[in-house]
Amino acid sequence: MSEITYVRGDATAPQGKGVKLIAHVCNDLGGWGKGFVLAVSRRWPEPEAAYRRWHRERAGNEFGLGAMQFVQVGRYLWVANMVGQRGIRTGSKGVPVRYEAMDTALEAVAERVVELGASVHMPRIGCGLAGGKWSRTEPLIQHRLLSRGIAVTVYDYEQSAGR
C-alpha cells in the first residue's frame, strides 16, 4: 500500500500531472464561509454555487452527512464537496466532524477517482474548523484511497504559500 505524500503548500494549487481531485469537508447546514472553502471560492466560484444549490434543493437530492458532490473546475481538475461535518460549532455532542460521514464520502471519492484516473489532493480534512484529529482521519484515507492504489497528497498550508 502506498503512503500519503505530505507537502507544504496550497491544496487549491495541486502539484503533479494528470487529472486531480481536490477533496474537502463541508457542513450539513449549507454554510460556506470559513476555513478552506474560502480558498476554494477565491479560485473558482463553481464549487460554492453548486454546494449552495445542492443544499437549497436537498429535499429532492441526497444532500446530508456522507453525501458527495463533484464539481469540475478545469479540464483536468475537480473539487469534491464532502458533507462530513454536523453543524459548525462544538457543543454537547462534541466537535462537528463526523468520521463515519467522511468515511462514506471517501468511498465515493475513491469510486470517482478510479473512473477519472485521478490523484487526490486535500488539506488535513476534518481537522480545521470541524475539530477532528488527524490520527482518526488518516486511517480513513488509508483504508478508502491508499488501499486502492490511489495517490494522495495532503497539503499543510503556510501563510507564505499564498492564501
From TrEMBL:
Record's catalysed reaction(s): an N-(ADP-alpha-D-ribosyl)-thymidine in DNA + H2O = a thymidine in DNA + ADP-D-ribose
Family matches, as SMART domains: A1pp (SM00506)
Domain of life per record: Bacteria
Macro domain mapped to chain residues: 1-163
Protein name (record): Macro domain-containing protein
Source organism of this protein record: Streptomyces sp. 900116325
Taxonomic path: Bacteria, Bacillati, Actinomycetota, Actinomycetes, Kitasatosporales
